[in-house]
Structures are given as C-alpha cells and as structure tokens.
Amino acid sequence: MMSSSFNIFRVGISVVIMCIFYKSAVDSLSELSPQKYFSTLQPGKASLAYFCQADSPRTSIFLEELNEAITPLQDYGISVAKVNCVKEETSRYCGKEEDLMKAYLFRGNILLREFPTDVLFDVNAIVAHVLFALLFNEVKYITTLEDLQNIENALKGKANIAFSYVRAIGTPEHRAVMEAAFVYGTTYQFVLTTETALLESIGNEDIENAHLYFFHCKQVLDLTLQCRRTLMEQPLTTLNIHQFIKTMEAPLLTEVTEDPQQVSTVHLQLGLPLVFIVSQQATYEADRRTAEWVAWRLLGKAGVLLLLRDSLEVDIPQHSNVIFRRAEEGVPVEFLVLDDIDSLISHVESNVHIEEIQEDEDEDTKSPNMGQAVSMAFLQSYIDLAIKLKGTSTMLLTRVNCADWSDLCTKQNVTEFPVVKMYKEGKNPVSYVGMLGTEDLLKFIQLSRISCPVNITSVQEAEEYLSGELYKDLISYSSVSVLGLFSPNMTTAKEDFTEAGNYLKGYAITGIYSEEDVLILSDKYAATLPALLLSRHKEGKIESIPLANSHAQDIIQIITNALLETFPEITVENLPIYLRLQKPLLILFSDGSINPQYKKAILMLVKEKHLDSLTPCWLNLKNTPVGRGILQSYFDTMPPLPLLVVVNLHSGGQVFAFPSDQAITEQNLLLWLKKLEAGLENHITILPAQEWKPPLPAYDFLSMMDAAASQHPTRKDPECTKEMDVQENDKKQHEDKSAIIKEPIETLRIKHWNRSNWFKEGEKSFRHDNKEL
Q1: pTM, full prediction
Q2: Rg (Cα) of the chain, in Å, rounded?
Q3: Locate the Thioredoxin domain: which residues (predicted)?
Q4: Nearest 10 degrees: CA dihedral of 675, 680, 685, 691?
C-alpha cells in the first residue's frame, strides 16, 4: 500500500540518480496480439516476448534496449516481439499488473524463463540473460571451490574447461562469455561464477575485473594432478575470447626448419608474435624441454617454435639462441642472445602491447546518442553501488529517467545528465559533483552520514576525534580528520569554518571545537587560535595550521590541499585532482610496487622542500596499464623500469628522463633537478599542445524536449513497464531554489543471486577515458 508521505524519509537518506535516454523509433520490434504471437511460435525455436498494455501512453527505455537486442538475438536464431494486451485479454501473461513488468523466453510454446524488466537493463543484459537461459546445460554456474574441483576432476582426460568470473550477471563481460559459449560450448565445458571468494581461492585477488581461465584438463590422465591453467590477460570481449581460445587450440610447440621470415601460424593471423628457440642436434632434447617451458609461459601471448639450426639454409648469427618475429608485415626478425627464460619472457612481454580488440560500433551510436551512452554507463556504477549498500537500512537508492519525467526534473533544476542528488529529511538536497565511479560515490555517501562540521563538545571527545576512534568506520574513506579550534567569541571565524565544512560535506571529515577550555588543545598542539588541526591517521601525526584572516574559500583550499597525498600513486581516476595543482609532474614509473629506498629518497626531498615546484608521484603499470602506452609515446619503444621522468604539462610540454645509468638516490635526484632548473638537461620529447575537453557538451535535454511538447505531451502517469514507489514530502526549498521531490520515482530494485533466482543485477564501474600524460 502506498504511503501518503515520502517513504525515503522513514529510512533517513535517499540518493537519486537522474538520467536521460534518447528515444528512437522501435518500428523493427514486432507488435502482436497474444493470440497472433502464440500462433507464430515454432517447435524448437526460441522467442523472447514482452507483454504490455496496448494503450500504454509511450515507450520505455526497456523497449529501446529490447529493440537494440533484436539483431544480436536474431544472429542466434532467437526472435523478439512486443505483445500488446487489451483489458479483456485472459492470458496469464496479461492478467496481472506484476506480470507486465516481465519478459518471457519460450522454446516453441514451452516457457523456459521469465525476466523482470529491471534485470534486462540494457542490450548486454538482455543478450546475456537470454543466452544464459538457453545454454543452461553448456554453462555451469558454481559458487564454491569444491564445485570447481568436482568439475575439474570429472573432466580430466576428457575435455578442457573455460572458467570465467564476472562481477555480475548481465554485464557486457557476461554477454561476451555467453556468446563464446554459444560457439564453443560443445567443444569445451564453460563454467561461470560471480563469487569473489571463489576467484580469490584460485589465487586471483583482482575482483574488480572479469577474468577467464583456460583449464587444460584433456591431457591430464593422472587424476591426482591439477589441470594447468592459463589466464586470459585481455579484457573480456567476444573477439578477445575468440582469439584467446584459438591460441589455446593451436599446437603448444611446433618444430620448423624453414626461414623464420617465411613461417606462418595462427598466431600471426591473430596479431601475436612468434618466438623461435634456436636448437641444434647436439642439444636437441634439452632445447625442446626449454622450448616447451617457454611455450607454457607465453601461451596466449606468442607462438613458440623450435628452429633446428643444422637443417636451416638461412644464416643465423653464431651466438643467437632466440629469434623474435613481430606480427606486423615487413618488420625484420630480431636475433637475440638471452641467458635465461625469465629474460626471454620479459623481452616478449615488454615488446608486445596487447590491446583490446574493439568491436565495430554502428556510426549511429556515436555523437548525438552518446548522451544516452554516458547515462547507461554510469547506471552500471550506480547498480554496483546499490549492491555494496545492500542491507544498509538508512539508505534508499532511486533513479529517475528524465526522458519520462521531464516535469519532475525541471522542478529539481536538473538539465544536465547524469546528476546525483542526496535528500535527507529536514535538510537541503546535496548535489554530487565528484567522479562517476562506484568507490567515489560510496565514499561520498558514507562521509555524508555525519554533520560537516561535527560539533565537538569536550576535550576528551576532541582527542577521540583526532585519534580516529570517534568515527573509525569512516577512516577508510578519508585518512585525514580536520578539527577547527576557536575561542567562543570568534563568531566570524567560526561562521567561515562552518561554511567551508558544509561545502566539503561528503568529501572530508571536519569537526569544530569552541568551548571555554579550547586553550588546552591549542597549547598541546602548539596552535595559535583560530587554527586547524590536521590529523593524518596513516602517518599517525597531527599538525596545526593558523587560520587568522582566512575566509571560507581559503579554508576550503587549505583542507582540499591537506587531503592530497605527499607521494601518491597516480591512477586514471585521481590524475585530474593532481593536475589541478598546475605543477610539473615528477613521475616514477614502476612495474609493480616501488622500491622503499626510492620512496624514502623522494619523501626526503619533499621534507626538505626541494620538490615544492613539482608534484611527485608514481605510477604502477600493473594497476594502470595505460602507463605502458604513455612511456612508449615518450620513448618510441618500452624503456627499462623503474624510470623517473619530469613532465611539464602546463608550460611547454617538455618531458625529461632521469639518467637510466644512475641510481635513484637523494643526492643524484637533487643534482639532476638542479640541472633541470638551470636548463642543462635536454628533453626527450615535447607533448603536443591540446585541450582536454569532455567528449560531449553538457546537453540541456529538457529544453530540447520542450520544443516537441506539442507533439509529445509531458508524461504524468506511470507506464506499464515501471514499478513506482509513490512518495511525497512537505514543500521545502533547497539551495538551487528547486522544490523537494513529490512526484513518483522509479525505485532501483536489486535482485541478488540465489539458487532459486536466476537473476543478479549487472554491475560495472564507470571507466573514465584514459588521459594522455
């Protein structure tokens, strides 16, 4: 039963995402009556049908996505239809209101599965769910390591396994796996999981990304042995999986006696290089064992061949023991002298930049419809957020499609999309302006749970606040706590600090103390009132900053700068934050964790104020693979790591490299930096001058829609495809002069996987565009 008051205020806080989706024609979607539809079903043929009232006032975003799914589903022999019900219709699929929220999958006239429409949230989810249902026997879903071990033991000596982990059912990666299973499901046993614990139990801790393993079980005859496992290192797309499986099908090792430049294998056709292990009759057995070991290490990355020098007419340099041939045509082979297997593997991996194979995009999906793509991409992060907050009783996540509810979005002063706002009873709504990723949203929500600033009432409470004990559950979201110290009569200074705290709500932990005994704290921490105390929990230290004559904007800047790390790891997500400092970047590129001695040397230079004109940072190529492409753009070929460079992005674009023959020590760094300052070092390259603008303008969709209002009236009533939670609230005004929501909003329903429910909402963190350094 619907309440007459806003339900969100019974649970405390509501976060609302407002999105825009373009409407396009759905003429290609067959619209049939129930009787006509069931008469078209053919034995053995699969069909997906959505039942809806015939007098539905306008189409929904679901119908748009269903229309997009017609072509890919038809490729697999699956028809798609919209079935229009009339009020007098007695079919079970038209009879109940809740049934009108579902799509149905039939094989012939047999119902296989029914799907709530909010589970089929985009074309990827539709294709993934439908194929998953049809491939029930070909794809086994498992939840435990025991399940995986049982399947592995059962298939030893019989068949190989393609084991996949995806973060949720219905994601693009899940669709790619299902499409691969449709093609290869009769050859390999496909196994799927969404359980992070299962992925971690086989030694992979990267639960943020989807993964595919190939288990080589067919050749295992000893049941006590474990099947070899090869991890696919490329992103999970349909074409990438196809390429990976093709390399798994290729011979592990091939013996050749012809010119390496004339050899052709499936690896070259797939864009992978060839590695020739040079052998001779005297060392043949040992060379073959070495070549097999190399082949296993490079499986999926390169083809490995054993080349017999004795029977080859082409001359090979006497000391060369490896020949490397790139996949590009016309590139001469490289003759190498390598001392061990690790050197060989390192050489291949550092010279082969595996790029994701992008599937062709229809030109119609670019430019104007990119606004729809941005909202849909962010919706994945929003769904991921909802899953992380499952069980949080004080939080309700909702979403509003502004294409359907333009009047509501206008009242909320929403014209650019996507927009996230937080509503709390008795408070003004807060707009979220941070990065559109799941973790950033989660941080914003968690830090918004407390007042900003928090009113501290005693010295003991202040000490608990500074130690992190008072809000220890929030320390993982902000490692710095800020406490403003004021005498009771410092009214203006307190007002400025409170204004700054309100501005930083959701981004920082701030508190204020202005009791009569404030001098106890100021004396202890050597702070001259008014002052800020910055408690850095990771370092375990507290520093004071005077606030005399500081206004709200000054305090905001002080706190914002204090939240930045001294020597941060640069990622795609946090790069813009450090670029705003408008300083050249001193970047240490590393293939993994950095040497503690390097970090110590750089931090010492920071402490001694030698790096005040630079932003020191480091980039881990394993966590941020785009760094490899950045280095290649600087040096043409991949340089040895670790490597230290200075990048002057904001003035001139010069890139300088620290000499590779020098150790990264405090003294060497200081001498090099002084040479840079004196203009005695030559740059290695100059970056082209270009603006980094958003790929799209901020569209004012509502004004566009108003122009067509005479032909398409603003919708006032829910359509049959939406499940609404009618919520109301007293009329209030907020900071942007727009009214609190009192219109119906669509509740984001999250269905979690269990053995009786086939559906788990799709999830994927929003991937921001890679920026060039």
Answers
A1: 0.48
A2: 31
A3: 385-446
A4: 70
